[in-house]
């Protein structure tokens, strides 16, 4: 929805052809009987909008659908006092303006007949065919929505399945919700707020993911007006005050038009007003709005190559803001969106954001999957399908939707489904990572190696012990970036399972449900015995993340063993964290873990920052005077040696360690990568004072170029 759509009285700020206007339809004046050879007057505006996108469309089926819908709903009234037929007509007009094909419009006219009238699915199928019947049935199943908290999970599971089987079902549902939101003022305020919240949490993200921006933006503004009325009115006043003859975007648009004309590039330059929520977000981000913040320039061209030609001219003739450049043509967004984004500095320093796309890209950007036509149209040359199936292969189905359909089958608990659905829909950006076999994985932004492991291997990922990211070893908690190459590493012990810490780093529903399901099947593993947790080593439970609480063994079954560390509670058991293996004179901080024990970390350990971010209160910890250690206990430390591969390297390193009077508790040598080798040693020293000398001795070994304290646990044998 544009600013002018939200405020019909506001002057238009377009430069050329009009945008989709979704609010033309008010109360429909129903007419009497019509002859069979012409379209009923009540849907003539729908036919006009439909023919604008599909000039050769056969409108006969629309006439028949309208006659059935009008006669079925005759006598029914909406809460607003309008005849009920105005609702399916309004929903159909919304879809017609977006460019929906005839089958979708026919189903839209009939979408409430089976639910609210005596018409049956069999009648719909007999009169309009299998496709229309399929869509009407799918929408009907979503109409029985009780928006109470207890009903939401199962309701939206059905919605998701219906959408996955045919994206046109959700298109009709979104248009249906938009018209209901427009007329929500007749309901009680508390019911308005309840419906607006569900629209905000589920339907708006679904509209975003289906690419239907025209519906999404208007729904956002309507929800904004209901849930935040004061901020909505402030934003309305700002937009009204900014509307005037001295629009800086007009000047920049004129300059861009002349620049492209001089370069011989045929293009339309439009001013695209921001909708209310967009203006509100910009205001919150920048504090004070600039004159160019109320809209963006939209440049429409004929071919993909012309988009880059326009970009080159703009960056040559204007000062570009490089940080604002994004190429969604070469790498389309997960919702089919394609466009070039940039920003240029105009006269007097005004900065204008510019969108560059083809007319086809613009249609898809506005209407998303609605603009793609009928994905199930039969190829005339293909043999007819003799046995219809409920399972359909949808060529327009986005990858994220296929993944949601996969994990919803595994989420048997409705509450788990609802929580993971809302979390997943909150992800508004997707990344693509590459597998080492040449395949790709689509993941939400912020996904970690845990998510990649479950996306690639399914339940086999329970045995993951780490990963290689762009050829380098990485922990499973490592966050992936767009374009990374990831190779999850699995243990040979198929009986091992995931770590509870993985849930802190899993962003995909598939990973979270798989991990949660494993612990449901293995309840004894959900809370590992702190006395044996470290003895298993990360090789059996996966590498812990930054916020892990795995500790080096600091006591035996006969009772606590002194660690040389003092905390505020003298009765608390104190354990040294295995992720950073603190030794004197490291500065310390601690955190209370299960059972009341205190885990002590080095202050610079990444786990400390992670704990504080999730609200864990630190515990003051310090070394005892004289370091308070038993002379025969020594101190334990984990070191990582990075080296170039050569013969006898391992022998020389272990000799250097032995010369420094250190005992090797455990050691791992990772496979060479590009002639580089990483050795990880867990060592016990008689005194922490010998640690610097030990590290110097290891660095002096030929081929070793770095020795550092480990930040993650190493296997303990």
> Oligomerization state of this entry?
single chain
Q: Largest sheet, if any?
A: 6 strands, mixed
Using only CA atoms, what is the Rg? 32 Å
The mean pLDDT is 76
Content-based structural category: alpha+beta
Which descriptor suits the 3D outline? Answer: elongated
Describe the structure.
With 717 residues, the protein is an alpha+beta fold. 40% of the residues lie in helices and 16% in strands. It has 26 helices and 22 strands. Strands 1, 2, 3, 4, 5 and 6 form a six-stranded mixed β-sheet that branches. It has a five-stranded mixed β-sheet with strand order 8-7-11-9-10. Strands 20-21-19-22 form a four-stranded antiparallel β-sheet, with helices on one face. A hairpin with a 5-residue loop joins strand 16 (588-592) and strand 17. The radius of gyration is 32 Å and the shape is elongated. The relative contact order is 0.06. Mean pLDDT is 76; it is low at 1-39, 145-151, 379-397, 527-562, 626-632 and 713-717.
Short description:
This protein is 40% helix and 16% strand. The chain has 717 residues and is α+β, with helices and mostly antiparallel strands.
Topology:
Elements: H1 3-6, H2 44-53, H3 60-73, H4 86-98, H5 102-109, H6 113-116, H7 121-128, H8 130-143, H9 152-165, H10 167-182, H11 189-209, H12 213-227, H13 229-242, H14 248-262, E1 268-273, H15 276-286, E2 295-301, H16 304-317, E3 319-320, E4 326-327, E5 340-345, E6 351-358, H17 359-367, H18 399-410, H19 414-425, E7 430-435, E8 440-444, H20 449-457, E9 464-469, E10 472-474, E11 485-490, H21 509-521, H22 533-536, H23 538-541, E12 555-556, E13 559-560, E14 565-567, E15 574-576, E16 588-592, E17 598-602, H24 606-613, E18 621-623, E19 635-644, H25 649-659, E20 663-669, E21 676-685, H26 691-699, E22 704-709
Parallel strand pairs: 2-6, 7-11, 15-17
Antiparallel strand pairs: 1-2, 3-5, 4-5, 5-6, 7-8, 9-10, 9-11, 12-13, 14-18, 16-17, 19-21, 19-22, 20-21
Helix pairs in contact: 2-4, 3-5, 4-5, 4-10, 5-8, 7-8, 8-9, 8-10, 9-10, 9-18, 9-19, 10-11, 10-12, 11-12, 12-13, 13-15, 18-21, 20-21
